[in-house]
Structure formats: structure tokens, C-alpha cells
Amino acid sequence: MSTILVTGGTGYIGSHTVVELMREGMEVVIVDNLSNSNLEVLDGIEAIAGKRPHFEEMDLRERDATYRVFEKYAGVDAIIHFAAFKAVGESVEKPLAYYENNLLSLIHLLEAMDRYGVDHMVFSSSCTVYGEPDSLPVTEDSPIKKATSPYGNTKQICEEILQDSQASSPGKGLISLRYFNPIGAHPSAMIGELPSGVPNNLIPFITQTAIGIREQLSVFGDDYNTPDGSAIRDYINVVDLARAHVKAIRRLLEKRQKQAYEVFNLGTGRGLSVFEVIRAFEKVTGQPLNFRVVDRREGDVEQVYADTTYANTELGWKAEIGIEETLLSAWDWEKYIRSKS
Ligand code: NAD
Ligand code: WQD
After folding, report:
1. Rounded mean pLDDT for each run of 10 residues along the chain, 341 residues in total
2. What residues pair up with 220 in beta bridges, in sequence order?
3. What sections of 182-237 are H helices per DSSP?
4. DSSP letter at 295?
5. Ligand 1 site residues, Cβ closer than 6 angstroms
6. CA dist., res. 204 & res. 194, Å (int)
């Protein structure tokens, strides 16, 4: 049985991935400092997967603490590295905290891999590395644009660190997965996204408006050069996304990589406008959403969606869950967390 160390495993995408790994019979060790998640997530995972993963509360900014995890769980076969700070706006306010957390955590893990003989890692990257793309859909070969935020820059630097690290140590197999816009929750509504404070992202803002926590959704701009004037994104269901990680882990463990450092886009391949998302949400929930159009949000790109051919053919992965089912899962999750508080 393979043992997978999942950093940030109590977080949003991490928790869904842990469930899928456990369903595939893999042994999971989660490490998380709970800076953006809580221990109740472990109950949700256990309720879905029928088993509790190992859990260590620790901070990857501490090298010795990182090493101690590898000493305690000898025999880790691969790492999935989700742990990071991820709020674009906050990264502009606190750039050093973002560089410290996102870069040091990765460096400590790579050092631990060398020290403890772990050869494989899957890394959470982002479509933010493409910035405003020159052509659509975006392939893995599309140019990397200068980052528009410290957060985005940490993802670009981390990818470079992975590439350099792999080049210096040919036995290592590394994969960066560039997520487009992950949304939704597990269909059981036992795990999901827990945004702290006022959400920056569209879907949590929609569900919080629909349930009455926020008065009105602001649509950031209707004067883009798109069919209905609102911005276009590639919204990918978090369970579909989680399953791609299982595929990436298998590819590494079975040594099926074409190159020792690989990059995959993870999206649906289809762009949806903000107005299309609102309409789909209203349709599945049966209730109108209170929204108004305001100015564009600074730093937003007009449209971005993935060419997923490489993930389809090489990983054998394809997004399967549709937007309506996905929005319903986000809504069910919102209702569940509010019923608890
Ligand atoms: P999340 O905040 O829900 O999960 C990250 C987890 O990492 C949290 O549980 C947090 O407590 C933990 N963590 C942070 N710093 C840590 C540290 N130093 N030591 C130990 N644990 C630490 O975020 P998420 O949405 O699940 O994102 C996971 C990864 O995917 C991140 O790397 C993020 O940048 C990337 N990503 C996310 C999105 C998105 O829209 N959610 C899109 C593209 C990429
Ligand atoms: C989606 C669309 C907004 C909120 C961010 C990060 C990116 C990646 C994914 C991590 C946009 C519009 C939003 C609202 C709105 N994360 N919107 N009203 O900005 O595409 O990507 O998450 O790597 O790096 O930047 O996602 O959900 O914030 O916005 O109209 O209240 O919804 O303008 O067009 P974004 P988002």
C-alpha cells in the first residue's frame, strides 16, 4: 500500500483529495498548521471515507519539525503539497509573509525528500501563472506572464524551484498541477470550502448572498470584450480536481512520466461568464440572486480557460461534473455550515 504525505490536507482542495486517495486504498498522512482550516475537517473526511487519516499539526516553515514528520512516518512514497497562503489581495498587503510561507515550505519539503529518500511530489500551482493570456484556450506551453501579485509570483517561483531541483537530482519525479477556478464541495456536504471573513471568490460570495449573510453580490464589470460583457473563467469541480491528483500520484509511482518534471492544466476546457454562473445558480436553487454590476476589479483578467488535452491524454483525466451539479454542491455545503453555526 502506498503512503502519501498530504500537506495542507485539512484545507479545501486537500481534504477532497485525501478522500479520493483513501477511496483508492492509499494510506494518508496529513500535515497542516490549521492556519486556514480546522480539526473538524478530519471528522468529515472520516465520515465519507470510513477511516481517519493520520494527522500531524505542524508548520512547514520549521525545517526541524518538517524533518520530524518524515522520521515518524518512515516509508512515505509521495507528497502532495497543497499547504500555502492563497489570498491574492492579502499577498499585496503582506508580501513577505507570502514569500516566507509559500517558498520556505516547499524548500523544506524538497530538502526532506533528499534527506529521507522520497522521490515524488505533486505541487499545487495555478492558472494565475498565465496572467492575461494572448490566446485561448491556454495550453501548458502558453507563456508565463509577469505575476500581478506576490501570491502569483510565489507560484511562478515555486515552479522554477521544482524544475531546478529536479534537474539537480535526476531520480526525482515532480508534477505541477495548474488549477483553474476550483469550486463546489463534496456531494455529501461533509467537507467544503471555509472562507474566512468576506469571501474574495465568486462562488462563496454567491452562496453567502443567497443564504442572507451578504446583502448583494457585486459583479465586477459588464464591459469586457466577451459575449455578455462579464469576465470568463474555467470553473472546475473540486472532486474532479481531487481525482486528478490521484491520477498524478499513480503516474509518478508507476514511473510513467515522459519528463521527470511535468506540468498539467486542470480545468474543464470551457469558459463561463459571471452572468452565466449566476443564471445557473438561480436555476438550480430556484431563487433569484440579488446582484448589481459595479466597476471592474483591479488586476482581473478578461477571460481565461484551459486547454485540457494534455491532462486528458497523458493523465487519463477529464472533468466530469457539470456546472449545475457543482453549484448545487456549493449551495448544499453553505446550508450545512450555516445550520451548524
Ligand atoms: P486552503 O487554505 O483551504 O488550504 C491550505 C492549507 O494549508 C490550510 O489548511 C492551511 O492551514 C495549510 N497551511 C498553510 N500554510 C501552512 C504551513 N506553513 N504549514 C502547514 N500547513 C499550512 O487552500 P486551498 O484552496 O485548498 O488551496 C490549496 C493549494 O492550491 C494552495 O497551494 C493554493 O495556492 C492552490 N490553489 C488554490 C486555488 C483556489 O482557488 N482554491 C487555485 C489555484 C491554486
Ligand atoms: C471569478 C470571477 C471576478 C467575486 C482567483 C485567483 C487565482 C486562483 C483562483 C489561486 C472574476 C468575478 C468575483 C465577486 C465578481 N487562485 N467576481 N464578484 O479572480 O478568477 O481567481 O482564484 O491560485 O489566482 O486570482 O477568481 O472567484 O475571485 O473571480 O464578479 O464578488 O468572478 O471578477 O471574473 P479569480 P474569483
Report:
1. 97 98 98 98 98 98 98 97 97 98 98 98 98 96 95 98 96 97 98 94 98 97 98 98 98 96 98 98 96 96 98 98 98 94 78
2. 294
3. 202-211
4. P
5. 8, 10-14, 31-37, 59-61, 82-84, 86, 101, 105, 124, 126, 179, 182
6. 9
pLDDT of residue 140: 98
Please say whether the beta carbons of 60 and 113 come within 8 A.
no
pLDDT given at position 34: 98
* Helices then strands, each counted (H, E), the chain: 11, 13
Measured in degrees and rounded to the nearest 5, phi and psi for residue 111 equal -65, -40
Instruction: With beta carbons less than 8 A apart as the criterion, state whether 131 and 139 touch.
Output: no
Are 290 and 331 in contact by the 8 Å Cβ rule? The answer is no
310 among known catalytic residues: no
Residue 204 CA, ligand 2 centroid: distance in Å? 11
In whole angstroms, give the CA distance from residue 160 to residue 198: 32
Q: What is the pLDDT of residue 310?
A: 98
How far apart CA 140 and CA 309 sit, in angstroms, is 10
pLDDT value for 79: 99
CA distance 340 to 322: 28
The Cα 274–Cα 276 span in angstroms is: 5
User: Could you tell me the distance, in angstroms and rounded to a whole number, from the CA of residue 299 to the centre of ligand 2?
Assistant: 10
Task: Choose among 50, 284, 81: nearest CA to 175.
Answer: 81
Question: pTM score, two decimals?
Answer: 0.98
User: d(Cα 159, Cα 176) in Å, to the nearest integer?
Assistant: 7
Q: 279 Cβ partners below 8 Å, 6+ apart?
A: none
